[in-house]
Amino acid sequence: MAPEATLIERDQAYRTRRFLANSEKWQTMLPNWRTRHRRRLLVLALCAAFAIMYLVGVLCHFFTMAPLLWLPACLLFFPIWISIAIVAGQLGDAPAGALDEWEAQQRNAARSIGLSVTQWFMAIPLTYLIVGSVITGGDHTTMAYTGGLLTLTSLLIGGCSPTMILAWTRPDPDSDSELDRTPDDRTPHDRQETP
Q1: SS (H, E, C) 111-177
Q2: 55-86, pLDDT tens digit by residue?
Q3: How does 55-94 read in b/e, with b if 16+ C-beta sit within 10 Å?
Q4: Lowest mean pLDDT among 59-63, 97-101, 126-130, 184-188
Q5: What is the per-residue pLDDT across 96-120, written as a single tens digit (0 to 9) for each?
Q6: Which residues contact 1 (CB under 8 A, 6 or more apart)?
Q7: Rounded to the nearest 5 degrees, what angle is found at the Cα of 97, between the Cα atoms of 91 and 99?
């Protein structure tokens, strides 16, 4: 009698099936943005979106209406993030069952860096909240918005870092590989005449 699958094993199997189905659906989307150069442009654009989000968080400390600027920052963030996730193949969030050994190693290394990035960026809002509450006695009215937006931005940066790292470092897809081409796809120069 086979042992019943544990909750973790069932979850991993479900995540693997979902990841493979999504990969198949998205593999043909944004084909011109899958080159390393264009992926790097998307990563830089996402870094700019994060900088704007941090700026909005800082502005919340000084202006009570500054949280309204969060909406334009989100409108900038979401399309860029979705594009990066599509062109990078979502390897940063991929379950282990859907990856080969090399991809799993790359994913784990990127996740390790992402955890470090999260820890370092989370120090910013934590320091602000701790020091700010000591200085102001917790009476500053916009402190919650500022701390909340800085924390949310730090978590977004840490969560997006593995996919951003993989999008930045992965080589260009080799679409013209000799192994992938059939004899009919080769150019006349590639074909050798047989006597």
Answers
A1: HHHHHHHHHHHHHHHHHHHHHHHHHHCCCCCCHHHHHHHHHHHHHHHHHHHHHHHHHHHCCCCCCCC
A2: 999 998 888 888 888 889 999 999 999 899 88
A3: ebbebbbeeeebbebbeebeebbeebbebbbbbbbbbbeb
A4: 184-188
A5: 767 778 877 888 888 899 999 999 9
A6: none
A7: 40
